[in-house]
Amino acid sequence: MIEKILAAIFFPGAVFLLAASLFYEWVDRKLYARFQNRVGPHLAGPFGLLQPVADLIKLLSKEDIVPMAADRLLFTLTPILAPALILLACMFLPIAGPSGIISFKGDLIAVIALLSIYTIMIYLAGEGSSNRFASIGAVRAALQLIGYEIPLTLSLLSAAIAAGSLSIGGIVEAQAERGIWLIAGPQIIGFAIFVITSQAEMERIPFDIPEAEQEIVAGWEVEYGGRRLALFRLSKDLELILLSGLGAAIFLGGPIGPVIPGLEPVLYTIYFILKSLVVLAIFTLVRALFARLRIDQMVSFSWKYLMSLAVILVILTEVIV
Amino acid sequence: MSFEISIGPQHPIHVEPLMLRLSVEGELIVDVDVDVSYIHRGIEKALEARPYIQGLYLVERICGICNAAHSLCYCLNVEQLLGKEAPPRAKYLRIVVEELSRIHSHLLWLGHYFHTLGFETLFMYFWRDRERIMDMLELITGNRVTTSYNTIGGVRRDLTPEAEQRLRRTLDYIEERMRYYEKVIDSEPTILARTQGVGILKPSDAVRLGVVGPHLRASGVKHDVRLDDPYSGHDEIPFNVITWDTCDCYARVKVRIREVYESVNMIRYALDHMPSGDYRLKIPPFFKAPPGESLSRVEAPRGELVHYSISDGGDRPYRYKVRTPTLANLLSVVEMLRSRDGYEVYIADVPAILGGIDPCICCSARVMVTDEARRRRTIMTLEDVIKISRERGAKRR
User: Fold this and answer.
1) Do A291 and B188 count as a contact with CB atoms less than 8 A apart?
2) Which of A150, A316, B119, B173 is packed most tightly, with the most Cβ within 10 A?
């Protein structure tokens, strides 16, 4: 019991996840900058590794403003709940072993549900701040959810069907038993859908529609500043880990790899981080390659193409299995 | 139900203060109101208080990006007043710098345009290549941004052979890069989705609203001051006027990319056929211009730029008037932003459409009368302005 609590707090729990999320943000920013022919963060710490930490500390020390028109309860609660939700979802990730700190039958569904609740949190955050840009951003976030949620769920579910298990641990173990990753096979389509819809979930280009800087300033987060914004930023960093980790676990075999007896947790963690960094690099590449879509184009794109592709994939998986 | 959102006066898409009041229904825009009067700088009035040679340095600062066009237009205007003409070599050198600054402006616009569409990567690439042009401008004129190259009666410096060699190499590089970017833009589905069919301006509307420059040519109307009214030896240099007939934001991108090729070729031709001789006339720094009026037109990167001056025989203009291309193009924004039957404009299209005209607001401030006591603001119409100026003119006499 004590061991479990310690694991949840330190490794591979909250402390590890928070530190890793800032590292992932650095990787994302640095790669994005290199793709764009820029240097990227390079001042704070070696190779600018501490830049996300510096940004976080700076934001935390800023003045805390609550607009008079804002809904005080929502304005206070959503920045706290958003990172908490994602942190909870990250606990399901198989980092130091084939299954996460929390795992039960069907925990994949729980993670998908948490992701949807996070978007609803964003909607509430935007509407609660009583700003016109924020309202538009919030509505866009909710509209976008209609677009990407089902393809995302279907892409994960078809992997679950292929592995014959609805739990993340089960999917990882099924891949270990077969000795082949799920991405080798028809699930590569699922991986592609997963990558695209993850961009929408994380509100990154080409789906950064809810916070489109050039259109609606910062969208739903326009009124948030100081420590509230810091918490939202943190939840986005955690989302990077969550989605790249989920992609690595479900499609790339998770933390499983050749091990030296006695060193399993360390090696598992290293494998997990390496694989999820590969997924993160793909996320970043997608971010560097596209322009932002319009909200109507995004929804019709996901229903026309992603949706039909996902349904075909599920049928295909069902037939093969 | 519609509600109003304000894009501006301070907003991430504007570098300069511009107010767009949008009435939106959901994501659709139903009505627009434009207000440019946040940055009135009084440059025209200030020009009346300066000798001609000092006005040259002020007029360049109307717009940082088209400074070469502004100073050229001013010089042509004053030269016309004096009844003098720049020597042939100066004309060609003026073309070189004018076209270089057109390339620089178009690259800047292209980068910024894709930034407004959320394509940050292309933005970085365009602006990186733009630096090469800035280096060339510095090499030739001595300044990176505000070039101060044109002067009354010619240009300030001659072109050295080494500079010419480096310029030719840079032009090759830019041309190659532009071909690559054109390929990227034509094959990138998200760019096409965001620009094709967005912000349609029919040729008839464009002409009716007095649109100028690349924006007009993107509506398929063949109009270019360089062709219609060759002002600096443009009749000797062969070039094509680029038009595109899809009349949308995609056309605006294509026209500007193609114009970069044309500018590159024009500079090459000018370098190949550079006349020898003086590069400036000897004109004393302070002089009196004979009474009269003069109008000059220049094809600035953003469109037709008009300068008009009246001289009363003194050493400074009696009246100086500048009509910038953005002012001519702003009306069309309102037209393009209104949703009509079968033509829908989304909030997300605002940056694409507004960006499409290459707005430069600080050139364009107009008169607005604010009555503090009655808390009322009225925008003067043309008739009001004419009436007031006649009354004031009568009083002065």
Assistant:
1) yes
2) B119
Distance from the A206 Cα atom to the nearest Cα atom in chain B, whole angstroms: 8
What's the mean per-residue pLDDT of chain B?
84
Helix (H, G, I), strand (E, B) or coil at A68: coil
The residue of B177, B194, B339 whose CB has the most chain A CBs within 10 angstroms, and thus the best one to mutate to test that interface, is B194
Mutate to test the interface with A, among B120, B180, B198, B346 (most CBs of A within 10 A): B120
Query: Which residues in chain A touch residue B21, judged by CB atoms under 8 angstroms apart?
Result: none
The pTM (predicted TM-score) of the whole model is 0.86
pLDDT band per the 50, 70, 90 thresholds, residue B194? confident
Specify the pLDDT at position A230.
Answer: 92
Q: What residue of A is the nearest CA neighbor of B129?
A: A37
Q: What is the pLDDT of residue A29?
A: 92
Cβ of B193 and A293 within 8 Å?
yes
| Chain A residues closer than 8 Å to B3 by CB | 132
Closest by alpha carbon to B339, among B199, B218, B210, B215? B199
ipTM, 2 dp? 0.84
Residue of A140, A217, A290 with shortest CB distance to B119: A290
The structural domain count of chain A equals 1
Q: Is residue A308 included in any domain, yes or no?
A: yes
Locate tokens 């995302």: which residue?
A152
**Domain assignment present for A4:** no
Region A268-273 average pLDDT: 88
For position B371, what pLDDT does the model report?
56
Residue of A nearest to B14 (CA): A214
Task: Check CB contact under 8 Å for B348 and A205.
Answer: no
CA distance A244 to A298: 22
Quick one: how far is CA B96 from the chain centroid? Answer: 17
Kindly state the tokens that stand for A80: 């706290």
Is residue A290 helix, strand or coil?
coil
A137/A127 Cα distance (integer angstroms): 9
- pLDDT of B338 > 90? The answer is no
Q: Which residue of B has its CA nearest to A31?
A: B121
A256 sits in the region (left: phi over 0; alpha: psi -120 to 50; else beta) called: beta
A-B contacts (CB, under 8 Å): 81
The residues spanned by each domain of chain B are 43-363, 371-397
Q: Is residue A264 part of a domain?
A: yes
Task: Quote the minimal CA–CA distance from A55 to chain B in Å.
Answer: 21
Query: Residue B12: its chain A contacts at CB < 8 A?
Result: 213-214, 217
CA distances from B378 to B26, B37, B366, B372, B392 (A): 30, 11, 12, 11, 20
Per the CB < 8 A criterion, the answer to whether A99 and A169 are in contact is yes
Of A36, A133, A214, the CB nearest to B121: A36
| Contact between chains at B124 and A36 (C-beta distance less than 8 A) | yes
pLDDT of A178 strictly over 60: yes
Of A279, A271, A270, the C-alpha closest to A245 is A279
> CB-based contacts of A182: which residues, under 8 Å, 6+ apart?
A159, A162, A163, A171, A175, A190, A250, A251, A252, A253
What is the C-alpha to C-alpha distance for residues A130 and A109, in angstroms, rounded to an integer?
A: 33
**What is the pLDDT confidence band of residue A296, given thresholds at 50, 70 and 90?**
confident
Does the beta-carbon distance from B128 to A132 stay under 8 Å?
A: no
H/E element holding B96?
A: helix B88-116
Q: How far apart are CA B325 and CA B215, in angstroms?
A: 10
How far is B187 from B36, CA to CA, in rounded Å? 36
* A40 inside domain: no
- For B43-363, CATH gives 1.10.645.10
User: What pLDDT sits at residue B263?
Assistant: 92
